[in-house]
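Here is the promised in-class demo. Please do not try to memorize the tokens; focus on the logic of going from shape to residues.
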């Protein structure tokens, strides 16, 4: 069964999203007709995943152009959307593109709405193509039948295409290889068990869900080909911000001599961020940890620390798989979008 698209245009030019907060129990689609609605959907994780956030924000800007058709209002909408999720660099990257295109359209006397809709569609199509290239590069790296351990959701639900971390899995599966996934449940919001397992089972890829605290033991038992995770931001030195729990998974992979790969589009590389210490880490509401769907799971007197992401140092990462190839993490910044890889990692036999 195919995975439904997590985002689409409605016939009237609004944005239709799959509400990912309701999965796997309910598959509900919501129409977003204003910038405020798009911002709320991003902030509340109805739409999530760094590449998809960028696409949604780009599409959201068009809603303001449709309402006012002024450059000033479009820039204001961009600023409002940029504040929703501080860690994912794809958000700011996509909005910068939309602002530049709006400025060009205004300067050249083009129809502002038409120009921005075309640019948003280009960003979406580019992401779909980048996912396919990540899938091909990762499949060559893994080299055939595989058992992949992953964390959070970096599949089709998080992108405009077949995903990032799951792209090599889908590519191998489509080629007839025996490939399966071990998915960390990913606390506190269970994106692994709710989302990754949902899309994998729909596509017929065998999937086993484990609690986050089981990952190190599962790696130690053997049989895991590699770990592949996504990324919300990659610093210039190769440090990677991803869903909280990724750092501990990288430590466990290193301790058990299992390759640890990061898969992300080249737009996730942020040359303005020198290293992981400079990556802004979003801290989310305490209720996400202390409650589950309205049921309190911790004493009200207990304090909560809830960072949405952590940073994995470059020296724990075996390689970073992007749409430009497979790179050593310390060299990923030297490979701009569409650049050829000069420091490629040799695929496994």
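The designed amino acids, position by position:
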């Amino acid at each position: 069964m195919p995975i439904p698209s997590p985002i689409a245009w409605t016939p009237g030019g609004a944005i239709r999203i799959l509400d990912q907060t309701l999965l796997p129990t309910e598959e509900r689609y919501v129409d977003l007709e204003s910038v405020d609605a798009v911002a709320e959907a991003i902030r509340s994780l109805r739409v999530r995943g760094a590449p998809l956030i960028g696409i949604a924000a780009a599409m959201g800007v068009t809603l303001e152009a449709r309402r006012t058709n002024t450059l000033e209002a479009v820039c204001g909408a961009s600023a409002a959307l940029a504040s929703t999720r501080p860690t994912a660099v794809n958000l700011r990257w996509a909005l910068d593109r939309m602002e530049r295109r709006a400025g060009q359209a205004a300067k050249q006397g083009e129809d502002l709405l038409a120009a921005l809709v075309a640019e948003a569609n280009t960003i979406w199509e580019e992401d779909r193509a980048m996912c396919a290239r990540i899938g091909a590069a990762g499949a060559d790296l893994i080299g055939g039948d595989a058992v992949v351990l992953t964390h959070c959701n970096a599949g089709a639900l998080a992108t405009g295409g077949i995903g990032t971390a799951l792209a090599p899995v889908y590519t191998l599966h489509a080629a007839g290889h025996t490939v399966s996934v071990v998915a960390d449940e990913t606390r506190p919001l269970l994106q692994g068990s709710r989302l990754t397992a949902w899309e994998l089972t729909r596509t017929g890829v065998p999937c086993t869900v484990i609690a986050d605290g089981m990952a190190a033991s599962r790696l130690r038992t053997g049989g895991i080909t590699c770990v592949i995770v996504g990324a919300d931001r990659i610093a210039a030195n190769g440090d990677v911000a991803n869903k909280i729990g990724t750092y501990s998974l990288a430590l466990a992979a290193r301790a058990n001599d299992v390759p640890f790969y990061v898969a992300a589009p080249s737009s996730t590389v942020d040359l303005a961020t020198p290293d992981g210490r400079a990556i802004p880490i979003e801290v989310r509401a305490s209720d996400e940890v202390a409650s589950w769907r309205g049921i309190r799971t911790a004493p009200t007197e207990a304090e909560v620390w809830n960072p949405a992401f952590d940073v994995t140092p470059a020296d724990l990462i075996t390689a970073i798989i992007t749409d430009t190839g497979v790179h050593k993490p310390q060299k990923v910044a030297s490979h701009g979008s569409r650049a050829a890889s000069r420091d490629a990692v040799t695929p496994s036999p």
